[in-house]
Amino acid sequence: MSAQASRVQDIDDLDVTKSVKSRDVTQAVNRLTALVADDMERVNATIIENMQSDVALIPQLAGYLIASGGKRLRPLLTLASARLCGLHDGDEAVRLAASVEFIHTATLLHDDVVDDSSLRRGAASANAVWGNKASVLVGDFLYSRAFQLMVADKNLATLKTLADASAVIASGEVAQLTTANDLNTNHQDYLDVIEAKTAALFAAACQVGGEAAQAPLPQVEAVRDYGHNLGMAFQLIDDALDYSADQEKLGKAVGDDFAEGKVTLPVLLAFEAGNEDEQTFWRRTIEELDQHDGDLDRAKDLIAKYDALAGTVEAAERYGKRAFDALARLETTSGVAQDIREALEDVIEFCIVRGH
After folding, report:
1. CA 143 to CA 162: how far, in whole Å?
2. Is 273 within the bounds of a domain?
3. Does residue 224 lie within any of the structural domains?
4. What pLDDT does residue 8 have?
5. What is the mean pLDDT of each successive set of 10 residues along the chain, which is 356 residues long?
6. Residues near 304 by beta carbon (within 8 Å), at least 6 away in sequence
7. Spatial distance between the Cα atoms of 245 and 219, rounded to a whole number of angstroms
8. What is the CA 173 to chain-centroid distance, rounded?
9. Which pLDDT does position 253 carry in this prediction?
10. Rounded to the nearest 5 degrees, what angle is found at the Cα of 64, between the Cα atoms of 243 and 43?
11. Selection from 327, 260, 331 nearest residue 299 by Cα
12. CA-CA to 328 of 20 to 30 Å: which in 95, 135, 183, 222?
């Protein structure tokens, strides 16, 4: 095991993800979509219906982002969790899945403003097209629509789950501001940030599916744990891709995290392993944001020198193993539920394979 991997050993005991390799995990999201296709069509229709407004800019801006090619992974998780927990009449799950997508879209609009991002999913970000004020206000509108959909079924459990998640996401974004440009950030503080800003909504998306199915508490907890650990793995890989992917694969400008001085695990591992000259480089570029031509290339070289990407992927694999273990707590025998469980297993692999 590399020195960098040992630095993240405290996250969990090392045990990499294993799944059925005979399946093509690159198609995992497509397979999951196919399994809940009817309900997903209704989710999309619900999204379109509820982003309408007499103010023309609202559906124009919201539609631009919603139609920009996202995989709809979070609402898919809501529908899949509901089916996995035995729900066959998916009206409530459809509305909750749409709520989840509205919350996610609102956070993207706000994040791009905070990060001053110019790209989102490979296209110009909404704030780059319409400006920051419009993006923030339309994000607020989508949050409001999400809560209107949540209360339609008068299910206090699901309302509490998504309301709590929304509060956690907001606090996570604020917490990220406190760790930005600070190389004294420890691993746990970093993990706390990604748990709040990413894993919380993954977990809630799965949990409300189980709650809509009125599943027993152990089943609801199992799907929630699956979503939480999947979200942690997903964000760790995203942070690795900022230093390894091409722009088309990443869906945003490569090096955005570096340009913004975000302290992510690849940076922490390379910084901690570096010599005095290398640490001075990181402090100049990340803490002082004094960046010049060639600095991103040097950052990538240092991350490669110390196997920091491998260490980050190994951390993601640990969370992937936890997600597998959570699914193993759910009893499925055959039929659609078993197909969904296998697709959810493959989604774990898909999230991690992106980092290889």
Report:
1. 11
2. yes
3. yes
4. 41
5. 41 39 72 93 93 90 76 94 86 95 91 73 74 88 93 92 95 86 94 96 97 95 98 96 70 78 96 98 97 96 96 97 96 81 94 80
6. none
7. 36
8. 13
9. 66
10. 100
11. 260
12. 95
Range of the domain at 188: 3-10+28-353
CA distance 173 to 167: 10
Strands (E) across 25-92 are located at none
Question: How many domains are there within the chain?
Answer: 1
Look-up of token digits 């907890």: 221
For residue 264, being part of any structural domain is answered with yes
Specify the pLDDT at position 246.
Answer: 59
Q: Name the 3-class secondary structure at 180.
A: coil
Q: How far apart are CA 46 and CA 211, in angstroms?
A: 20
How many Å apart are CA 16 and CA 37, to the nearest integer? 31
Record the pTM: 0.89
Give a yes or no: residue 19 inside a domain. Answer: no
| Phi, psi (degrees; rounded to nearest 5) at 218 | -60, -35
Neighbours of 280 (CB within 10 A): 11
- Look at the block and give the residue holding tokens 């040992």: 6
Q: Give me 78's structure tokens.
A: 């809501």
Residues contacting 243, CB < 8 A, separation 6+: 254, 255, 257, 258, 266, 299, 300, 303, 309
Residue 158 Cα distances to 13, 110, 150, 165, 240, angstroms: 33, 24, 7, 11, 33
Write out the two tokens for 71.
């995989």
The torsion defined by the Cα of 249, 254, 260 and 261, in degrees rounded to 10, comes to 100
